[in-house]
Amino acid sequence: MSTSASPAGDRPSRAYWPAVVAVSLGTFSVVTTEMSPVGLLTSVGSDLKISAGVAGLAVTLPGIVAALAAPVLTVAAGRADRRLVLCALMALLTVANLLSALAPGAPTLIASRALVGLGIGGFWSIAAGLAVRLVPERSTGAATSMIFGGVSIASVLGVPAGTLVGELAGWRAAFAALAFLCAAVTAALALLLPPLTATRAIRFGQVPRLLRDRGVRTGLTVTLLLVTGHFAAFTYLGPVVGQVSGAGAGLLSALLLVYGVAGVAGNFAAGPAAARNVRGTVLLIAGTLAAVVLLLPGPGAVRAGMIVLLAVWGLAYGGVSVSLQTWMLRAVPQAPEAGAALFVSSFNAAISLGALLGGVTVDSLGASGVTWAGGTLAALAAAAVWLSGRDRGGDAFPGPSPRTLSGPDGKPPAIDSRR
């Protein structure tokens, strides 16, 4: 490819939309790879002669590894061309899926899923903030939405497709198909991404130092509260729907489809909205999630009410990733990859924490208890967002907005790893 992207910290003069699509395909592949075992656990456990708990590690382990690996791999990348780094990480996911498909037993399967966690942590840390390097400022919101759109579409299409392949041809065929998908995306990234050199390497000490920034601390707090609350309730949606409305598996499948489609719409709506007013967008999302989850035991008892609530839930949660990533970019525009690494770590940790909290709550308080736990955490997230701007005249960030982040030459400042 003859053209090259602007150095880190500079805006490109043209939009690389094919590259944005390639990164979106990457996020689609990452999430599909991470979550596909959910629909394959029964057949995996039966074939490998392992318990449901051991098979479940194929789902929980990647998130834990990703949370730990995100900051480490971001620092290890140094000044390497981000195009090559993303290709290498996607190639790692290809190998991991192939190992899963060929796994003779549980140890190999679990090891392959640990490799998936490494790929997830590294890929997300770089890809999450890549829109600012691929499109001009006016298109950042749309490009960020497209990149994060891979997450929502994976939930609606990728994971069900993997489950279907597993049902028709066996779980090994499903992992082999994922390996083929990741290999194809690796080629697309290599062909479509422009060179993305880093002007300065990120030092490990820079990542925890970002915690000194109040905007960063608030963003991570909101991420932990909101994502933990969501997964505490959503992980046990089946028991909640059954207890509240008395519905069976058929309605649950329809609800998940409604939720997924609404999530795609929410993602693409939240990107431009967050670019205009990130604090207001996150506040609206958190408040909506809190209201929906807390209302499930009431209006949700009527099936029409449950459908409406799940549609609103999907619409709101679909915008969580893109809006919170925009928050982190606004908080530390001088260090987007370091901020993304912290965001990825907290997000993945919150997924595991939410599932754990939901399990403890449903065992002790019943299915309706998880709605109170999840809704309360979402309400606390909304309160944290509101308080973040209360003493700043509505601005959650002490620094200037991205629209005013420019130097004497009219360009945004370069990344400074010494801050």
Topology of this structure?
Layout: H1 17-35, H2 41-48, H3 52-76, H4 82-102, H5 106-127, H6 131-134, H7 140-169, H8 171-192, H9 206-209, H10 214-234, H11 237-245, H12 249-276, H13 278-295, H14 303-317, H15 320-331, H16 336-365, H17 367-390
Domain Major facilitator superfamily (MFS) profile: 19-393
Subcellular location: Cell membrane
Transmembrane segments: 15-32, 52-77, 84-103, 115-135, 147-165, 171-194, 215-237, 249-270, 282-300, 306-328, 340-360, 366-387
Characterization of this structure:
The protein is mainly alpha-helical and 419 residues long. It folds into two domains: 17-192, Growth Hormone, Chain: A, CATH 1.20.1250; 206-398, Growth Hormone, Chain: A (Up-down Bundle). Helix content is 74%, strand content 0%. The protein has 17 helices and no strands. The longest helix has 30 residues, at 140-169. The model is unreliable at 1-9 and 399-419 (pLDDT under 50). Residues 19-393 form the Major facilitator superfamily (MFS) profile domain. The chain crosses the membrane at residues 15-32, 52-77, 84-103, 115-135, 147-165, 171-194, 215-237, 249-270, 282-300, 306-328, 340-360, 366-387. It is found in: Cell membrane. Residues 393-419 are annotated as: Disordered. Pfam families: MFS_1 (PF07690).
